[in-house]
Every structure is written in C-alpha cells, then in structure tokens.
C-alpha cells in the first residue's frame, strides 16, 4: 500500500555482509507495513529468525528472513482494499480511502449509500440520514424517502428534504412532501421560514394550501392564497375556517365584477347572515359601480360616434365596458333576509334609476319586457289577483284558482321567468308547491327533498325517492334522518327499512353513522325491532369480512415467510447443484456447463445466445418484469388512480391496495 514503510522491531540492515551476524532459530521480528496516507496499519506479521534485509523494487517489498526465507509483499488494488473494508463494515475508512484514491464523486456517494443502508438496518436512523444526505445528487431521492416514510421518521425525512432543496435538486413533489412533514410535526417556525423565503415555488400551490388548511395553519394558507391570487381558496379560509367575514368583504371589494359575481354566489348568503349591513352596502356599491362604468363608457362612445354608426358604437361599448353585475343574480341571496332585500333595492333605485340611463339601447328590450310580463303576472297570481277575462274562459279554466295558474307558469316550458325572482316570490308567499316546481325545473332533487321534509309531505317524498333514488341514492341518507325523528308517521317503518336497504346496498353510510342517525337524538323513536334485520346483516357481514381478512393475512404472512427464507438461503447458504443431465437436451452434463440458482443446468452449447436467465424459468421471470414495468408506468397515471378512487365504494381500501403494490413510486425501480 503506497506510500508504506517497513517497521521491523529489530534493526537488521540488509547491507551487512552475510555472516556478519549469527541468526538464531529462536529469533523473531515483527514486521509492519504502514499506510501513511490513510493513517492505518496495512500489514503486520512475524518473520521467523529475524529480518536480514528489506528491499523495495517494482512497487513491491522483499523481506529476507534469518532462516533464508524471502517474503514478497505487493499492494492490493483499491477495489480489493474497499471490498475488505466493506466486509468489516469500516465504511468511514472506505470513504476516506476512496477520496484519497481519486474516486469520482458518484462512486464515493455509492459508499455513503452502503454505509447508510448498514446503519439503517441497525435502526440507527439519525446517523444513517447523515450518510444519505451525502448522496444527494447521485442517489435517487425516492430511495431515501420511501425508507423513512415507511419507518415513520418524519424528523429525519424533513432534514433530508431540506438538504435536497438547499442543493437545488428538489421537485414539486418533494416540496409538497416537505410541507406535509412540517405540518405533521407542527413545526410552524420552519414552515413560515420556508414559504416566506422560497424564490421559485416549484410545487402545486393548491395542494400546499390544502395541506396547510387541513393541518390548521390558516395564516400560512392565506399567505399562499393571497400571493398566488387563489381568490376562492382565500375566501374559503376567511369565511369557513376563520369566520372573519369582515376581512372577506374587504377582500371581495377589491375584486373585478366577473370575479365578484363568481364568489358572491358561493359566499354571499353566509356573509349576509353574519354581517347583513356591511354585506348589503358592499352589494349596493358593486352594483352601482358596474352601472356607472357602463354609463360613462356609453356616454363617451356616443360623443365620438354619429347617428349612422349607432349600432357599431353600441357594440364598442359592450366590448370595452365591464360586465354589469345584474341585480337578478343577487336578489336570491336575500331569500331569508327580506328586510335587507328591501334596503338593497331602495338604495340601488335611489342611487341609480332617478336619472335616465344612456345604455338603455344596449339591451334586448323585447326579451326584458317578456320576462317582466311573466314575472309580474306570477306575482299577481301569488297575491290572489284574478283577471276579469277569466269569466270568458272555459269551465275547466275558470275552476283554477290563482295559485294553480301560478303553478302552471312555473311549470310551463313556454314561459320566460326569472328563477331567482320567482323563488323569492314563492318563498315570501309560502307557496311550497311553487318552490317545488322551481326545484324540479332546475333539477335540484336534494333541495326538493329538503322541502318535502320541511312540510312533512310523505306522499311527494315517496314519489321523489321512487323516481330519483336509484340514480341518486344519497337522497336516502336525508330520508333516513327524517324517518328516524318521526317514527310515528304512517308507513314510517316501511320507509325506514327501504332507506336502510338502499344505504346498505350502495354503502352510503357506515353502520356506526347509521346507528348514530337512528338513536343519536332525543327525538328519535326508533326501536330495536325496526332495525333488527339491518343490524344482524351488518354484524354477519362484518364478521365474515373479519374472518376473510384474517385468512388472507395468514396466507400472505406464510407466503412472505417462505419467500424470505428462500431469499436468505440464496444470499447466505451455498447452493449445491446435483443435476447430472442438461435441462435442455436431457443428455448427461459435460464441461463446459452452466448452472442457474433455480437448480437447472445446461450445456454451454445448448444455451447459445439465450442470455443470463434460465430458459425454462424465463416465462416466470418475464411475468415479474412485466408486473414491475406496469407498476412503474402506473406511478405516472394519476388520472387513473383518482378515477378509480372516485368510483370506489371503499376509498381507503383502494389506497391501501395501491400502496401495497407500490404504484406510488416516484422513480423507476432499480435492481438491487
């Protein structure tokens, strides 16, 4: 090992003439070779009879012993040295030797990886992570990430991901995972530092906001939502999570008309219920701002245009002016706030329509007139007003009262009414049939069922379930809660049984939630006899599932142990090849022959160019390769996973199944 020194205990100059000293057979000299570069003892041994001389030549050391022996020492190459150190688990020394031996960085990283694997196997996770960090840039990050995810060592994993970002090797998935680690560890300080100091946010912002929101880090989620203009998510956090309606209104005031209209439908009613005065003032201001903007644009266009180009001027105004926030799209928000609806309308009328609008020619007057006529007629019918012309109608028509005529308008396909206005009119007059007709027109079966429940309309409720229950089984969940609270109603037990059967058939609720719905309220009058059949079926099904799972677990455990024993035997025990015949031509084996670990043996001439796999086992091997390749491909098919998850009855079971088959690998599997 170079450079090395001979270090004999007894000095025996090799230049002394033969016979100058008498060597005894009892003499012995300890001979040591030192590696000064790596600071280690490369060799030590005893030379019988003492050392008569030491010489170096051709890169080797020659030692002449007192008994006339000549020992020859040559330096091992670097690979052999490293192999010896690997066997003795002297990885730090192997790293130092590789660095001194001018190994490239990738090779040194490979040694760090082996060192980390050895420490990880000994459950020394912290020290192992220190070694894995040295491999960044050379070892696929997913290799380390999978290890520490499986071991639930989030602290170590966080350190690795931080170093990965420091080295500039992180992807968006790594950043998302790091954010998850911060939230799981409740490390708010480092989470704040990370999201406030990132220069290029290479991650899915929506996912990051969702992670922070789920973990309760609302301020961090708000920061990201505001920075990346995620308006909808920002308002959700303010309204739904922090209940900070005032701040949400201030934020909405800064939005353009288009964005304001989009989020008004989602958050307007909640804002009105909490801060009706402030919300009403905002709605009035936004409406007036949109109207004034279009008025100013129309006036400017009218001054520049002439009478012959009126239509083109109108089209120009429509193109350059902001869209008008229609009052018709706002009024439905006041369905439960009639007093504030009046205040809203009074303010808009007082501030806007006391002067003539120059944009009246920009709208389709015929369409507006038709809608106005139908809406006014509907309002008159709901107020009980009858037309004198009804006396000239047919007897069947004269029998219809105003409410029936209003219902015909609501159900008619030829009528043109404003849905929001019609809803307000029906709700204000307590016209439940009209509200039901509006819900039917919109196809809102869930709201329709709520209406029937509110009015204890079992007849229509039964018709609705019969009509839409098969394609919308979620309706039965609402019906279950209703019948559980009202067991005294006629046919309640029959309907309750039907609801339970549908819920059980479509797995809409867990048995625990069903029982909570049936008996979790003081108003519930459901007896055990009413649900005995359901409970017995659930117990039977659950018991059978448990037994099946136990059988499967036992089978998998046995297979796993058997396979692990085979693997250990192949790794650590010698394989005895006893085959005397070629597995291909079935003639006696002769040299040269090739043996495979599957216990098949072949003449070399029989194998030809088959390769390094056994021909008889090649089909099984190919099948495993195909399965592995399919798993690698499925790791990138996120849409397939989410599609299956959307349609799965047991979402958790599907996720567990995918984890067990390793389709979530971040990179291509590597042969070990």
TrEMBL record:
<dbReference type="InterPro" id="IPR001841">
    <property type="entry name" value="Znf_RING"/>
</dbReference>
<dbReference type="InterPro" id="IPR057308">
    <property type="entry name" value="CHCR_PEP5_VPS11"/>
</dbReference>
<dbReference type="Pfam" id="PF17122">
    <property type="entry name" value="zf-C3H2C3"/>
</dbReference>
<dbReference type="GO" id="GO:0030897">
    <property type="term" value="C:HOPS complex"/>
</dbReference>
<dbReference type="InterPro" id="IPR016024">
    <property type="entry name" value="ARM-type_fold"/>
</dbReference>
<dbReference type="Pfam" id="PF12451">
    <property type="entry name" value="VPS11_C"/>
</dbReference>
<dbReference type="InterPro" id="IPR000547">
    <property type="entry name" value="Clathrin_H-chain/VPS_repeat"/>
</dbReference>
<dbReference type="GO" id="GO:0007033">
    <property type="term" value="P:vacuole organization"/>
</dbReference>
<feature type="domain" description="RING-type">
    <location>
        <begin position="582"/>
        <end position="618"/>
    </location>
</feature>
<keyword id="KW-0479">Metal-binding</keyword>
<dbReference type="InterPro" id="IPR011990">
    <property type="entry name" value="TPR-like_helical_dom_sf"/>
</dbReference>
<dbReference type="GO" id="GO:0005768">
    <property type="term" value="C:endosome"/>
</dbReference>
<protein>
    <recommendedName>
        <fullName>RING-type domain-containing protein</fullName>
    </recommendedName>
</protein>
<dbReference type="GO" id="GO:0030674">
    <property type="term" value="F:protein-macromolecule adaptor activity"/>
</dbReference>
<dbReference type="GO" id="GO:0006904">
    <property type="term" value="P:vesicle docking involved in exocytosis"/>
</dbReference>
<dbReference type="InterPro" id="IPR013083">
    <property type="entry name" value="Znf_RING/FYVE/PHD"/>
</dbReference>
<dbReference type="GO" id="GO:0007032">
    <property type="term" value="P:endosome organization"/>
</dbReference>
<dbReference type="Pfam" id="PF23356">
    <property type="entry name" value="TPR_PEP5_VPS11"/>
</dbReference>
<dbReference type="GO" id="GO:0048284">
    <property type="term" value="P:organelle fusion"/>
</dbReference>
<keyword id="KW-0863">Zinc-finger</keyword>
<comment type="similarity">
    <text>Belongs to the VPS11 family.</text>
</comment>
<feature type="repeat" description="CHCR">
    <location>
        <begin position="132"/>
        <end position="280"/>
    </location>
</feature>
<dbReference type="GO" id="GO:0008270">
    <property type="term" value="F:zinc ion binding"/>
</dbReference>
<keyword id="KW-0862">Zinc</keyword>
<dbReference type="GO" id="GO:0006886">
    <property type="term" value="P:intracellular protein transport"/>
</dbReference>
<keyword id="KW-0472">Membrane</keyword>
<dbReference type="InterPro" id="IPR024763">
    <property type="entry name" value="VPS11_C"/>
</dbReference>
């Amino acid at each position: 090992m170079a450079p090395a020194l001979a270090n004999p205990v007894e000095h025996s100059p090799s230049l002394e003439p033969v016979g100058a000293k008498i060597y005894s057979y009892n003499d012995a000299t300890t001979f040591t070779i030192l590696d000064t570069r790596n600071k280690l003892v490369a060799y030590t041994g005893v030379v019988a009879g003492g050392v008569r001389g030491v010489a170096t030549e051709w890169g080797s050391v020659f030692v002449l012993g007192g008994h006339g022996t000549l020992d020859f020492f040559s330096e091992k190459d670097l690979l052999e040295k490293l192999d010896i150190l690997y066997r003795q688990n002297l990885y730090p020394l192997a790293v130092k030797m590789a660095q001194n031996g001018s190994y490239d960085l990738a090779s040194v990283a490979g040694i760090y990886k082996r060192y980390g694997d050895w420490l990880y196997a000994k459950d020394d996770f912290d020290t192992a992570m220190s070694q894995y960090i040295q491999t960044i840039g050379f070892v696929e990050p997913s290799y380390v990430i999978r290890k520490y995810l499986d071991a639930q060592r989030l602290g170590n994993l966080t350190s690795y991901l931080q170093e990965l970002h420091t080295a500039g090797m992180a992807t968006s998935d790594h950043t998302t995972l790091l954010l998850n680690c911060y939230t799981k560890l409740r490390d708010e300080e480092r989470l704040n530092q990370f999201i406030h100091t990132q220069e290029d946010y290479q991650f899915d912002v929506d996912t990051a906001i969702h992670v922070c929101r789920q973990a309760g880090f609302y301020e961090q989620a708000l920061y990201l939502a505001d920075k990346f203009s995620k308006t909808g998510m920002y308002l959700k956090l303010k309204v739904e999570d922090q209940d900070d309606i005032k701040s949400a209104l201030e934020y909405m005031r800064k939005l353009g008309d288009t964005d304001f209209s989009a989020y008004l439908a989602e958050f307007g009613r909640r804002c009105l219920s909490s801060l009706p005065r402030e919300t009403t003032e905002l709605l009035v201001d936004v409406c007036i701002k949109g109207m004034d903007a279009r008025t100013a644009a129309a006036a400017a266009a009218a001054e520049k245009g002439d009478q012959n180009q009126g239509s083109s001027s109108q089209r120009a105004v429509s193109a350059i002016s902001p869209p008008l926030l229609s009052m018709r799209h706002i009024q439905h928000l006041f369905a439960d706030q009639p007093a504030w609806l009046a205040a809203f309308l009074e303010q808009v009328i007082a501030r806007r329509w006391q002067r003539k609008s120059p944009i009246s020619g920009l709208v389709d007057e015929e369409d507006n007139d038709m809608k106005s006529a139908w809406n006014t007629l509907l309002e008159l019918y709901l107020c009980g007003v009858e037309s004198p012309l009804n006396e000239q109608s047919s007897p069947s028509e004269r029998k219809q009262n105003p409410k029936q005529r209003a219902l015909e308008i609501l159900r008619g396909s030829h009528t043109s009414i404003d849905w929001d206005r019609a809803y307000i009119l029906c709700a204000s007059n307590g016209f439940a049939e009209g509200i039901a007709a509006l819900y039917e027109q919109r196809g809102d079966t869930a709201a329709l069922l709520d209406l029937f429940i509110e009015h204890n309309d079992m007849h229509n409720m039964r018709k609705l379930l019969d009509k839409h229950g098969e394609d919308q089984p979620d309706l039965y969940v609402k019906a279950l809660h209703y019948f559980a609270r009202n067991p005294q109603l006629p046919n309640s037990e029959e309907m309750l049984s039907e609801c339970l059967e549908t819920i059980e058939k479509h797995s809409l609720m867990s048995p625990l939630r069903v029982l909570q719905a049936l008996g979790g309220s003081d108003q519930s009058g459901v007896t055990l006899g009413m649900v005995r059949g359901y409970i017995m079926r659930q117990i039977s099904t659950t018991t059978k599932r448990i037994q099946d799972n136990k059988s499967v677990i036992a089978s998998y455990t046995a297979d796993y142990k058997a396979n692990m024993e085979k693997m250990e035997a192949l790794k650590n025990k010698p394989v005895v090849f006893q085959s005397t015949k070629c597995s291909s031509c079935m003639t006696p084996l002769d040299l040269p022959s090739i043996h495979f670990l599957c216990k098949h043996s072949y003449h070399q001439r029989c194998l030809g160019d088959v390769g390094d796999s056994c021909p008889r086992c090649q089909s099984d091997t190919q099948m495993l390769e195909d399965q592995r390749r399919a798993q690698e491909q499925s790791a990138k098919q996120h849409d397939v996973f989410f599609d299956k998850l959307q349609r799965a009855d047991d979402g958790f079971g599907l996720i567990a199944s995918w984890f067990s088959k390793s389709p979530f690998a971040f990179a291509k599997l590597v042969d070990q």
